Amino acid sequence: MMLDRAREIYDRLVAWRRDFHMHPELGFEETRTAARVARELEALGYRVRTGVGRTGVVAERGQGAPVVAIRADMDALPIEEANEVDYASRVPGVMHACGHDAHTAMLLGVAALLADEAFPGTLRLLFQPAEEIGDEEGLSGAPRMVQDGAMEGVDVCLAQHVDASMAVGDVMLGAGPASAGVDSFFVTIHGQGGHGAFPHLTVDPIYLAAHAVLALHGIVSRRLDPTAPAVVSIGSLHGGEAPNVIPAQVELCGTIRFMEPGVQKQIHAEIERALGVVRALGGDFELQFEIGCLPLINDAGVVQVLQDVCADLLGAEHIEEGEPEMGAEDFGTFADLAPGAMFCLGCRIEGDVRWGHSPRFDIDERCLPIGTAVLAEAALRLLHKMQDPQKNNFSVGSDRSATG
Fold first, then answer.
1. Where are the domains of the chain?
2. Which residue of 196, 301, 308, 312 could cross-link 244, Cys pair, CB 3.0 to 4.6 Å?
3. Could you read off the pLDDT of 219-255 as tens digits, one per residue?
């Protein structure tokens, strides 16, 4: 059984994961990580291409169609690690606080398990940079890899994400919307500065910003269909330096989340409408949007294969039904181009939940062979099913219209 085979390489999985954890790299800076990944893949006999999406790696084995792609993200976060373990980050102010070290190690594990496996078609492994950030144009690693051809010819794509809220041995997945699309917005509110003792001689941008914040926070509750999931949150508000000086401008920025392209467009329009209060009160504003990633829609056919694999390897009682959430994940960029699905992998350290994006994040490494086995077995089954979909009563892509 694939899980037994994955457990046989447990020590290798742990060694890979700890090496990446000790040497974290931020988005589009994953040069050491990518080099280590490429060396391991070449040693396993894969065809390897580096520099994909700047610092990504693409590896292949097999020939022709069908093509199944599996993605793992490689970047770390700008967080100072607080864990006192021998594999703690050796890079000041940077740590793997979201499990991407584990994702990368498990995809290397998939490569090892399938290095000598016979299968129809092509297995493509996508080691992605910069899931957490965008570049100077606001693009994260997924669209940059797409621009470099990483998804050409792909029929199905897979991914996983460790989940510190779930016990080791449990997985969570479901068909349909899984995570939200995300954009950012940046606003500069212009007024007329002056002495704090004479506010009537100014156009106070802080006063204008206060009204703008209230209007922005009313978008979801008063302008959008209440049945359409959406978020508008302001994350930063800056203006002024001294207590007795009214500044000339205030800057604010925030995030929007959405599950449907129509809602995305409406939120953009409503943000500009809400900021109209600034002009009504005598000021002016500049507004810019940074387009992020698409919503992730899990394909029903791919999810069914993953559920069957998890039931066979782990037992049906260890499968939790996934529900949509407003967190964002740029795997949606890949899954918009080919039917795909992502599942969550339980990694909780018993008695001590280490939440993602925190200085104490860590995982129970017993999850590593589980995630490796599920991805490897799912890839094999998909390749065989897609070789003759009519014979195998298999179809994907019928529900992808949700992303437009």
1. 2-175+299-403, 181-291
2. 196
3. 999 999 999 999 999 999 999 999 999 999 999 999 9
Q: Is the pTM of this model over 0.90?
A: yes
Query: For the structural domain made of 181-291, what CATH number should be given?
Result: 3.30.70.360
Distance CA 18, CA 252 (A): 39
The pLDDT of residue 353 is: 85
The confidence score (pLDDT) of residue 403 equals 44
Catalytic residues, by residue number, are: 75, 131
Domain 2-175+299-403: CATH superfamily is Zn peptidases (3.40.630.10)
Under 8 Å between Cβ of 359 and 80 = yes
